[in-house]
Design brief:
The complex is a heterodimer of chains A (about 500) and B (about 500).
Chain A (H helix, E strand, L loop, with lengths): L3 E3 L2 H18 L4 H21 L1 H5 L3 E11 L2 E7 L1 H27 L5 H20 L3 H19 L5 H32 L17 H14 L11 H4 L5 H28 L1 H7 L1 H21 L4 H21 L3 H32 L10 H4 L1 H15 L6 H15 L2 H26 L5 H8 L8 H16 L5 H16 L4
Helix pairs in contact in A: 1-2, 1-5, 2-4, 4-5, 4-10, 4-14, 4-20, 4-21, 5-6, 5-10, 6-7, 6-10, 7-8, 10-11, 10-13, 10-14, 12-13, 12-18, 13-14, 13-18, 14-16, 14-17, 14-20, 14-21, 16-18, 16-20, 17-18
Chain B lengths: L1 H4 L2 H22 L3 H26 L3 E4 L10 E4 L1 H28 L4 H20 L3 H20 L4 H31 L4 H7 L7 H17 L9 H7 L2 H26 L1 H7 L2 H22 L3 H22 L12 H28 L10 H4 L1 H15 L5 H15 L3 H26 L21 H22 L4 H10 L7
Antiparallel strand pairs in B: 1-2
Helix pairs in contact in B: 2-3, 2-5, 3-4, 3-5, 4-5, 4-11, 4-15, 4-20, 5-6, 5-11, 6-7, 6-11, 7-9, 7-10, 9-11, 10-11, 10-14, 11-14, 11-15, 13-14, 13-19, 14-15, 14-19, 15-17, 15-18, 15-20, 17-19, 17-20, 18-19, 18-20
The chains are: A mainly alpha (about 500), B mainly alpha (about 500).
């Protein structure tokens, strides 16, 4: 089951964004060349990562260590397993689409400092994929911090006082959490003597005080503030001041998912489900997640700024993943794992739509969007697909992950948790459907009805519409059996299978 | 060849002293020559230091008897792994600062070029002397040489620098005096000044109050020299008003050489057994912990970049001393014994050297001292600012920089020593570092220049530092990352382990 293949592919996959970043910096003066490096880097990286999939689905692992024994029993390097690959595929495939989108967005708005933007974007992808492929906590920490730092210039991109404030808040939250993460790693290392991710966990309850393990878990949780659970969520809505593609990829996929990914790693691969169960940590974690799922949805209802509403929706949805893992049942963990790519595709669709609306009409607030479905039909249709997915309504893939999560609660025998899941889904409907209603059925404001009478369709540039259509399309495709869905499901199944039955 | 290398320790000091005089004489005739004599000397010294390091690594320590007098009667120079390590670091940084100084000194002290290089060379002679000597009194002499040279160099800009230099002079002299009293007390009970001889004569006398008092005098005296909190008060002004390369030397090497002297006295003269007898190292840990926090907090309040960096040095001395304090209770490799402390000595020299040189570039190009005036520098001087960011990130301790490796090792050592409180202090301090360094980075890159609108068309003219100043800055900055990988790959570990086994820090307590 645990055959190990040595291969350089993980390093090559990381070399793509790294070299793309350098080339971007060098081709500062030639925008077309600069953007083509981003595209080439993203496509090549995606192919390399995808090529690892067949081996991984067989239950093997790919290892590649650059520096052995940086500390005794700790190697700096990568060990790709099914769960890591799942996240890596999500991040790298969405990088391609968002790169295309970025080009349209940044050029349409004539943003400043575009070289810095693309440079940091590539570095952030390096960080996210590095987190996904890391073989142990120390390597993961290194990429985790790279991810934090490289996204700071993206958040503060506008350089206005508010953006600077958002940047500071972002760093204050995430680097503080990094410090806790480091403390937790050092402590784990001194307890377990290793930091590798091993299905079933590396911490053994023998000779350890329960309270020690409990405090350590709290340290890890604080260390993953990137997962934006309540009460450590407020950096995410503030960071929405970033350009929309950044919000889309980084704050719906790369950064926040890195946090959630870390929590899953800790629960399943450091503590192990048995130990979690023994310590009663599953209950604690699932109540955290439940509070966030419902609380963030309530916050979302009150937001008028579209991106902020989406941010709160992200906070709520991220906790679905934490929730699924906290159930500690095979179904729950499967649901959590596949929610990572599925939510990624759906949420990115929504963010890309928000960006298109901004570019073509300059509107940021939901209350101004009355009738926008008539001027921007494609964008708003895609938005509708994303919204349905968020609410977990069948033709969109969000349904599958919710289905698994629901089964997970039953497997765990906790009906109250199923109730939480349903309430939260209901709240999703409450804050998404008004947007759809406004967009398609409400009457536009006086001044704008002129445009609509002339039946003028005013979509965003093609390079923006195509990616968002693609992501919406995939969100639906994942619902039905086909090779792409099978890839994700098989990866999740392999990962859960390696846990030894849970 | 190997027989020839035995003479290198004394040659390093002697050519430095001779070169100092030569610079003065040759510069009197033609002041263009002084720089070339200076750089050539350091280059020769640096190469010699590398030969010594290789020799020490493969063979045994070098013992050199001055004038052929046998110790303990004559002065002995002893170069072991620790001395060689410090020697290479100090000459490397001196080389970087020397290259940097050509343009900077022509600009800052146009009329004092000759005397500047002459005294700078004297400073290096003193530093090298402290590193190679095996005799306590001789060490005192070299500490005084290096300090007096430093007083003069700090005062070289005149005006307010005179006051800074005077403060340092008074406090530094008190420190040196304490050191001398310590030597006197030891001499009164043992009648010897040779370090090795002392370490053999002292063990029966460890209970003696005079010996214990001597250690306290050494400790306090050197604490002043290394600016350990709360005896750091001379340091911020001295660092702030000295010319940039002297600030870099002060922060990167001069106070580090004082920590070297402390390690030498504590472990070579007094040995581990004495340190375990009294709660000295526990006290040291707490003092260092206070230094880390207070230094970082004071750094946050500073408006002047160089003063901010100076307070950061106070905090970093705390890191080194904390690691020294933990050294006797930590045995598992690779963070055993003095390894984290020695590691941070090198790392701090690289990081702080780079940061002070960058601060010097800002002063050289635009006379900018205050952090709030740095708006738009990220575009004006892209390479210099990039170097600053790398070094600052390293100070904060973000992987894979050198600062991260030091932090990780000290944390692991503190966990093993079961002193969790210091783990918390270290992590808190890295957050405080973040606060004060990020403020600078934000101002350089993100704050908009007043009255300027950004658009795609705005072209900010580049105004980079001259190559001679940029090169050392960039080399130091890239070493901040490259050395990080070296540490992680454990390339320098055999050397440090040699130091640990020499001091008996590998065995279980």
């Amino acid at each position: 089951m645990n055959e190990i293949t040595e291969s350089l592919k993980p390093v090559l996959a990381l070399a793509c964004p790294a070299s793309a970043a350098l080339l971007i910096l060098m081709s500062n003066r030639w925008p077309n060349l600069r953007e083509s490096w981003t595209l080439i880097g993203s496509v090549v990286q995606f192919l390399i990562i995808l090529s690892m999939a067949p081996v991984i689905i067989n239950g093997e692992r790919i290892e590649c260590y650059l520096f052995r024994e940086i500390l005794p029993q700790v190697h700096f390097g990568f060990r790709v397993d099914a769960f890591g690959l799942l996240f890596a595929i999500t991040a790298s495939s969405l990088w391609i689409l968002v790169s295309i989108y970025s080009i349209g967005y940044m050029r349409a708005l004539q943003e400043h400092a575009q070289t810095r933007y693309y440079f940091c974007f590539a570095l952030a992808i390096l960080g996210a994929v590095g987190v996904a492929l890391s073989g142990n906590l120390v390597t993961m920490f290194i990429f985790y911090e790279i991810l934090t730092l490289s996204t700071y210039p993206l958040v503060a991109h506008e350089q206005s006082p508010e953006a600077l404030f958002a940047g500071r808040k972002y760093l204050a939250y995430l680097l503080t959490s990094g410090v806790f993460f480091l403390a937790a790693i050092a402590w784990t290392y001194s307890l377990a003597g290793t930091t590798d991710f091993i299905p079933g966990g590396i911490l053994k309850p023998v000779s350890l005080f329960q309270s020690t393990l409990f405090v350590l878990f709290i340290l890890f949780l604080i260390g993953f503030m990137k997962a934006a659970y309540i009460p450590f969520h407020s950096w995410l809505p503030t960071a929405m001041i970033a350009p929309t593609p950044v919000s889309a990829l980084l704050h719906a996929v790369a950064v926040v998912k890195a946090g959630v990914f870390g929590i899953v790693r800790i629960v399943v691969y450091v503590y192990g489900t048995d130990l979690m169960w023994e310590l009663g940590l599953g209950i604690m974690l699932s109540s955290f997640a439940a509070v966030t799922m419902i609380g963030a949805s309530l916050f979302a209802i009150a937001q008028d700024n579209l991106k902020r509403r989406l941010a709160y929706s992200t906070i709520s949805q991220l906790s679905y993943i934490i929730f699924g893992v906290a159930l500690l049942t095979p179904m729950g963990i499967t649901g959590a794992m596949i929610h990572i790519p599925f939510h990624g595709f759906m949420k990115i669709t929504l963010f890309l739509c928000a960006g298109s609306i901004l570019v073509s009409t300059g509107k940021r607030n939901i209350s101004e969007m009355a009738g926008i479905g008539r001027t921007m039909p494609i964008t708003m249709l895609a938005f509708a697909v994303g919204s349905l997915g968020m609410c977990g309504i069948p033709p969109v893939s969000g349904f599958i992950s919710k289905w698994f999560l629901g089964l997970g609660t039953l497997q765990a025998g906790k009906l109250s948790l199923l109730g939480v899941l349903l309430i939260s889904s209901f709240l999703d409907v409450v804050y998404f459907f008004p947007i759809l209603y406004l967009a398609f059925f409400a009457k536009p404001a006086e001044t704008e009805s002129m445009v609509i009478e002339r039946k003028c369709i005013k979509e965003a540039p093609l390079s923006m519409v195509v990616p968002l259509t693609m992501t919406a399309f995939f969100s639906i495709v994942f619902m039905f059996p086909n090779p792409v869905t099978d890839l994700f499901l098989n990866l999740a199944r392999t990962a859960v299978g390696q846990l030894g039955g849970g | 060849m190997s027989h020839f290398i035995e003479h290198f320790p004394v040659l390093i000091v002697v050519i430095s002293l001779l070169s100092s005089i030569t610079i003065l004489v040759a510069g009197w005739i033609n002041n263009k020559t002084s720089y070339f004599i200076f750089i050539t000397t350091i280059l020769i010294q640096f190469v010699a230091a590398i030969f010594i390091l290789v020799h020490v690594l493969t063979g045994s320590p070098i013992h050199y008897w001055l004038g052929g007098w046998k110790p303990p009667w004559g002065i002995e120079y002893v170069v072991d792994a620790l001395s060689a390590y410090v020697l290479v670091i100090l000459l490397f940084l001196a080389l970087a600062c020397g290259i940097y100084s050509k343009k900077n000194i022509e600009h800052e002290l146009p009329k004092k070029v000759v005397s500047f290089y002459s005294i700078f060379q004297l400073l290096i002679a003193g530093l090298c002397g402290v590193a190679v000597t095996g005799d306590v009194f001789n060490m005192y002499v070299f500490i005084e040489i290096m300090s007096i040279a430093a007083y003069a160099l700090i005062a070289s800009r005149g005006k307010i620098a005179l006051k800074a230099s005077f403060t340092y002079l008074v406090l530094g002299s008190v420190g040196a005096c304490f050191f001398l009293i310590g030597i006197g007390l030891l001499y009164s009970v043992t009648g010897s000044l040779n370090m090795h001889d002392l370490s053999l004569l002292l063990p029966p006398l460890y209970g003696n109050r005079v010996v214990q008092a001597a250690f306290v005098f050494f400790f306090v005296g050197l604490s002043i020299k290394m600016a350990l909190f709360p005896l750091h008060t001379w340091l911020p002004d001295a660092h702030a008003f000295a010319p940039a390369e002297i600030s870099a030397m002060l922060s990167g090497i001069i106070i580090e050489v004082s920590t070297y002297a402390f390690i030498r006295v504590s472990f070579s003269v007094f040995t581990v057994n004495f340190l375990k007898l009294l709660p000295i190292l526990d006290i040291l840990c707490w003092v260092a912990g206070a230094a880390i926090i207070v230094g970082s907090l004071l750094a946050i309040t500073q408006l002047n970049l160089k003063r901010m960096l100076a307070y950061s040095s106070v905090a970093n001395m705390g890191y080194i001393m904390l690691a020294v304090g933990l050294s006797t209770s930590v045995v598992s490799e690779p963070w055993n014994g003095l390894t984290p402390a020695l590691m941070h000595i090198l790392n701090h020299a690289l990081m702080k050297g780079c940061l002070f040189l960058v601060a010097g570039v800002f002063i050289y190009k635009a006379d900018l001292w205050l952090i709030k005036d740095f708006q738009g520098l990220g575009k004006r001087m892209p390479y210099t600012c990039a170097a600053f960011v790398v070094a600052a990130i390293s100070m904060i301790g973000i992987p894979p920089s050198v600062g991260f490796v030091s932090k990780l090792y000290i944390i692991l050592a503190a966990i093993e020593a079961k002193k969790i409180i210091f783990v918390a202090l270290l992590l808190l301090s890295s957050l405080l570092n973040l606060v004060y360094f990020w403020r600078v980075i934000e101002t350089m890159y993100m704050k908009k220049v007043e009255g300027e609108e950004y658009s795609l068309l705005t072209h900010v003219s580049k105004d980079e530092a001259p190559f001679g100043m940029l090169a050392p800055v960039l080399i130091l900055a890239s070493l901040c990352i490259v050395m990080g990988f070296f540490w992680l790959a454990k390339i320098p570990m055999p050397l440090l382990n040699q130091v640990n086994s020499m001091f008996g820090l590998n065995k279980m307590p």
